[in-house]
Q: What sequence folds into this?
């Protein structure tokens, strides 16, 4: 892996969402998934941005190299006692279960393998009050799953949230004890 890229991080929350921010996320996604944009599921990304950014608990970190957006991570706190991942794992005893759902972590091709993804991930989860973080990884990308495991996540099951979506590995990480 190349040395970690030096990027500027900008943080956004639900109240900071503008049409320009949404367009930046869509633009980065289009570059990150340029070879897969013929997939109808990937073409709906703008809908997912609208859905997640409308959540009052929305949090987003965008990375910039100068004025150029290089990647982002976003998600939101899950509704207590309604976390969708519970069907895959039940904590022992009175283990805390408040959850931050990491929806997207995306890095444009030019900045991949530079440590940018990890910077965005860590910045997004820094200071979170939830006990756990959860995310989904396409099961046809085992190297991505391995990467998340190296960051402290563990697979607890599989899930296909939409009829036209890939099958995903459900991964959890403990944030608080």
A:
């Amino acid at each position: 892996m190349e040395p970690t890229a030096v990027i500027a991080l900008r943080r956004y929350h639900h109240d900071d969402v503008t049409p320009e921010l949404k367009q930046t996320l869509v633009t980065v996604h289009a570059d990150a998934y340029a070879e897969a944009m013929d997939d109808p599921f990937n073409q709906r990304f703008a809908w997912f941005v609208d859905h997640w950014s409308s959540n009052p608990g929305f949090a987003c970190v965008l990375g910039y190299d100068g004025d150029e957006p290089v990647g982002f991570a976003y998600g939101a706190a899950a509704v207590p006692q309604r976390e969708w991942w519970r069907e895959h794992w039940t904590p022992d005893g009175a283990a805390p279960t408040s959850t931050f759902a990491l929806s997207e972590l995306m890095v444009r091709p030019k900045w991949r393998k530079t440590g940018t993804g990890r910077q965005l991930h860590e910045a997004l989860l820094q200071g979170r009050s939830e006990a756990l973080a959860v995310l989904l990884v396409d099961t046809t990308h085992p190297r991505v799953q391995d990467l998340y495991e190296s960051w402290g996540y563990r697979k607890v099951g599989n899930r296909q949230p939409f009829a036209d979506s890939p099958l995903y590995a459900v991964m959890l990480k403990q944030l608080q004890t």
Summary: The chain is about 25% helix and 30% strand. Residues 19-32 form the longest helix (14 residues). The first strand starts at residue 8 and ends at 13.
